[in-house]
Amino acid sequence: MTFPLPVTQINLPPGMIDLGLGDPSFDLLPLDRLRRAAADCFARRDPAFLQYGLEQGNAYFRAALADFLSRGYGFPVDPDSLFVTSGASAGLDLLCTLFTRPGDLIFVEEPTYFLVLRIFADHGLNILSLETDSDGLVVEALEERLKEARPRLVYVIPTFQNPSGRTLSAERRARLADLAAEYDFLLVADEVYHFLGYHRLPPRPLAAYAGNGRVVSLNSFSKIFAPGLRLGWLQAEAGLIRRLVGCGLLDSGGGMNPFASAVVREVIEGGGLAANIEELRAVYRQRLAFMDAALRRLLPAAEYTPPEGGFFFWARLPGVDAVALRQQARARQVDIRPGALFSGRGGLGDYLRLSFSFYAEPEIEAGLRRLAECLA
Ligand SMILES: Cc1ncc(COP(=O)(O)O)c(C=O)c1O
Fold first, then answer.
1. Pick the CATH number of 278-375 from 3.40.50.150, 3.20.10.10, 3.40.50.2000, 3.90.1150.10
2. What's the pTM?
């Protein structure tokens, strides 16, 4: 069975179903919302958004975003605590540039988002992976480590984690923020899935602790709107924001992505972002339930806890080498992400990450069938 993909999807061989992809499917990209917002933006006849942008990000955009976040988080967000980025990846890269030096030690969760390991490698950072359980990072394990080593930065994905789907408990969030202040490390919380819960609200984001000066919350429009916008934000305390605003990159290039900020401002003010997230949640909730049922039916050996949000199933296939499985899978035109990619210490060999964000139910079913054939 083959499925037509838009011609712009150039990275996939024809017929391949890549269940590893953490992208939204093409039919979920907000073409009409953006077309209308861009028309409204141009109709203002104010060309300021085509100029170099303010280093911290456009003030109208930050005000609209702060209002949206205040409603979504349930506590007030000050527009001045927000700094506009061209995505969570760019925000993290800038934090590494400004607050780390090659050779510094940083802590991550085991497992963690695999591509972030590449960013840390670009900065010459030494990575140590910390234990996690069903409530996310084991904070006691971190406390033990802190007795002997001082990390410059600790990176966590507290909500609907990539890849595990797990969510850090409220108690652990509070403790983690306290530890960041006590041991003086930068706690970087990547909260890009915070608004993509399908059953219940997650605990308050770590953004709630940004005021303590050691917590930075990264977020993005990539998962809740459109990754091609290359637009995101971070929330931090005033001193940290000043350091970011004064950096050389922005001195030369101006604030990040004023064009996309201006268009997305129209979307937010018109209620389009909230509506978009509601639509995404309805679709992803169904796909998640479908993949769960299909996994039980087609891959009964897979051990996993169904996620409550985000994009991913994190499954263990005891005794299976997922890297070898991937090779066989590709030969059968299905792809996965082996667990080893998500390990900072060469572990997790019998895990795999499967995503339900890019494909609708028929492709999910067909992909899992092919995978089951490989395992048979
Ligand atoms: C945890 C996490 N952080 C960051 C990103 C990338 O975000 P952005 O597109 O905003 O750079 C992803 C995308 O997969 C992700 O899963």
1. 3.90.1150.10
2. 0.96
